[in-house]
Structure formats: structure tokens, C-alpha cells
Prior knowledge:
By secondary structure, this protein is α+β, with helices and mostly antiparallel strands. The protein is 28% helix and 34% strand. A seven-stranded mixed beta sheet has the order 1-2-3-4-5-7-6, with helices on both faces.
Amino acid sequence: MTEQETPEFVQITCPDQLTPDTSRELIECWLTVSNAGGAVLAGRFPLPPVRREDVAPAVDELVTALDPRRGRLVLATLGGALAGWLVVRRDHSPLIAHWATVNHVQTHPRYRRRGIGSALLRRVRDLAREEMGLEQLHLAVRAGMGLEDFYRRLGWREVGRWPGALRLAPGDDRDEILMALPL
């Protein structure tokens, strides 16, 4: 990534911080990533192709749950345009308040191979440790996409698998790979 392509980061910690334009960009990114075969799953999404009507309620739900103590949306922009995003969220329980889950790591296809995903993950590592006081991060990735290698290069380690947990099509069951990053 060149200096000219260094993303700017924006944290959204509560629903009223999200502008209608940014909401539209999030929906468009999620729609594009999903339809390009990205490993982005949401409980009620159909398998691709997905439509705006499928994605918009998931974005609304995600944004409604934001809270500076528990959940943050991190946006990466290039030249003012949304290049990628992710969510970091911790649970209410004091038993697991020392870690959070990273979800929806997405880079818009037109910005792929520019280091946006790596930059987002480095940024979330820093904000999780320094601003949220966390000790570790967790995430789950779909096997068969090469994503575990990407995360390993950034310091994440595989801690387990749920064999055949994801059924993409009849006869296409994939493991869900559980990964952790100590902070």
C-alpha cells in the first residue's frame, strides 16, 4: 500500500453517528462482497445472489447494536469512499469481558489487494487493546477460501474448528475455523 493509498479510519460507536450516505455505502459494500463470493454470512441472508432488501435490515440491526463499551464499527476509507469495514463486539457477561469478536471483515472488491483488510485488522487490534481494554480477539472464517493464511500472517492463530458447520450447497460443507489473536 502506498502512502497515497493509506486508508483513513472512522469509528462509529453509536447509531446516531452513522450518516445516511455511509449507511448506503455499507449496504452496497456488503451486497457487492456477498455477491462476489465473499465469505460473509449473516443468519438470515440467503446464499448469493443477495439483494439490497436482504442486506439493509442486517446493516440496520448491526448499527442499532453499537455501543462504545461493547460494539464498534470500524470503517476504512480511501479518497472519501468506503474501502472496507468490520465490527468488533464484546459480550455483556463479566466472565468474557476481556475478549471480543470481530465480524463482517469486508474489503470492497474494487479495493482488494491494496492492504485494506490488513490495515483494518491492525487498526482493530490497536483499538481493542488501547481503547476497549481487551486482552484478545476472536473470529471465525470459512474453510476453503484461504482466509486462515491471511489471518495467520497478521498474528492470528487457529484454536479450533467446527467440522462441516457451513453448508454452502448440497455436498459443499465447509469447516468453520475459529481463530484468536492475543493482544
